[in-house]
Amino acid sequence: MRYYNYLDHKSHWLTLLLLPLSGIFLALSIMRRLGYKVGIFKSTRLPVPVVVVGNITAGGAGKSPLVMQLALQLLAQGYRPGIVSRGYGTAQQSLAMLVELDSQAGTVGDEPLMLARNTGCPVAVCADRVQAAELLIASKECDVIIADDGLQHYRLARDIEIIVIDSQRQFGNGFLLPAGPLRELPSRLAKAHFIVMNGSSDQVIDSRQTTMLFEVSLVKSLQPYGTNAEATLLPWFQGQTVHAVAGIANPDRFFNLLRAHGIQVIQHDFVDHQRYQREHFEFGDDLPILMTDKDAVKCDKLAINNAWVVKITAVLSKTFIDDITKMLSSVKRKKNAHC
Known about the structure:
By secondary structure, the chain is of the alpha/beta class. Helix content is about 30%, strand content about 20%.
């Protein structure tokens, strides 16, 4: 049984069994937030604007593609953005570390490495996002920090909050962890500056919500980073049968994207942040293998034949980007005035 099966159902036996633990989780969450509010725990405010991108549910909602696109948009407008991440699944997370373009995903994390390679922005990882942000400001002279999946990391004071919601799963069964997928109650949305719905939806959860869609920009052959890769477009695979590999929180979104382009999919879903070996790709045939960018950063040195990386770009409205940059300009002026 996949972990997410019971998180979508209020009456599943496992949901009911875990409900008391959700009550404890709620109490601890309230106490923790109250601790930051009254000063028992300290939040650190940085000298540059901090934009936090997160969600109130466990699992993937589309945060990293939004972070990627936001960083590229800010770069185009003359900002020097830096990205901080926890670096989930890395060997050590206690000391801040810069992500190099030739870093190993097992050392810095798959999502930070993907962000660094696709944006060209400085990226730092650490369990303590404050340490990571301070490293970027000191060593890379970043003038805005974007925190990937940092909504519940209240030690890092933030100037702008963006909450991402998966349009398909939304809030699941509506219960907090571990009986449901929620990290925080839906009432938390009211405190955020922007609400982004990942995927089209007729349901209006919040009057401020904007829609984020995905488009496939290119499909590239899987090669070691820094070497030339053959590029094509996804319609080239239309009508073909392929092996689709996804070690992400919501693999069905990737599989459905391929099917929508007329591709016959043999799906292989792995756990999120899967550490791959070449044996994972021995399917006994010569069919093409399509994978996500997040998977590719862990596989580019495995010498997998006929493997391709589907490069996906988040599409955000001009109004959303304009509103973000206006707010950033205002925050930056206020911080400079207090220097």
